[in-house]
Specification:
By secondary structure, the chain is an alpha+beta fold. It is built from eight helices and 17 strands. The structure holds pyridoxal-5'-phosphate.
Amino acid sequence: MNINWDNLTFSLTHTKSMYIAHWDNGVNWTEGELIPFGNISMSPAAGVLNYGQGVFEGMKAFRTINEEVVLFRPEKNIERATLSAERLCIPIIPSGLFMDGLIKVVGDNRDYIPPTDKGSLYIRPIIWGTGEVLGVAPAPSYTFLIYVSPVGPYFKSGVRCLNLRVTKKYHRAAPRGVGNFKTIGNYAASLYPQKLAKSAGFDEVIYLNAESDEFIEEVGSANIFIVKDNKIATPPLAGSILPGVTRDSVIHIAKEKLEMNVEERPIPLGEMMEADEVFCTGTAVSVTPIGQITSDDSVGIINNNTIGEITQTLNTELNNVQKGISEDSFGWLVPV
Ligand SMILES: *Cc1c(COP(=O)(O)O)cnc(C)c1O
């Protein structure tokens, strides 16, 4: 093992092992096991390969300043995986099995967790229909797998603010669709709008609501917040937005620790363009400032394209809890 902790980006590094468990028709989930990280084989007729019957999660383990290894709110990811699985007719994984997998795979790959200030261990649970199907139907068998990878910052820029474009050409998710679940197909569909934005020089896309194109929804794979006159607002979880664990954590920190006003309500596009601060949240991106937003021909410069005070505070508060720098007053950390 030879990892240069200073050069970590958000990309895959192979580690020692991954966790795998199976579900076969009529037999419930078997106890999982650790196997070396590597390729797996499945039939070309696997449900996941033909019809996208798969869901995933994304979470992190941190090395705290006291050299402890902790998971951040794993029960929230397990809860969300359960809802995602149910929506795609994937047999639900008992939370005990899920947690067993997380603890085992992180424990076994402890050496791959970066030093506190260099990054974290990204954890990727996936649940796939791996049994054979020909007609559109739920697969007869399933695989639960967790692999991990040390990661650094999601955006190479470090502290630079993001430059985003509002897309009016594509929607991420429709009302009553699957936008509120981490189903794999949602992400293949986001690649093309993302590619167009990137080739025009933007970091990512901001999506509007499919029903009326009036309200902001989220950024590619992160939730969005605005700040105006010391009041924080974020779009409500009304079905087409992914219920982010980071989103929920930021709301708790803002309301309960900082005693700020947080509204979950529809946010018109024009209101975002006039905001004092705009930022996005996610496990991968943490709390990242947005400094410039282009919508049609209008360009909104947010807070002089610098990180705002409230964005900075929320970022620091969240990171301090995750790294054991401040007290875990919400009980969010689970030791490995
Ligand atoms: C995963 C994801 C998020 C962020 O969720 P976290 O639990 O905070 O990582 C936001 N939006 C989309 C579309 C996502 O897939």
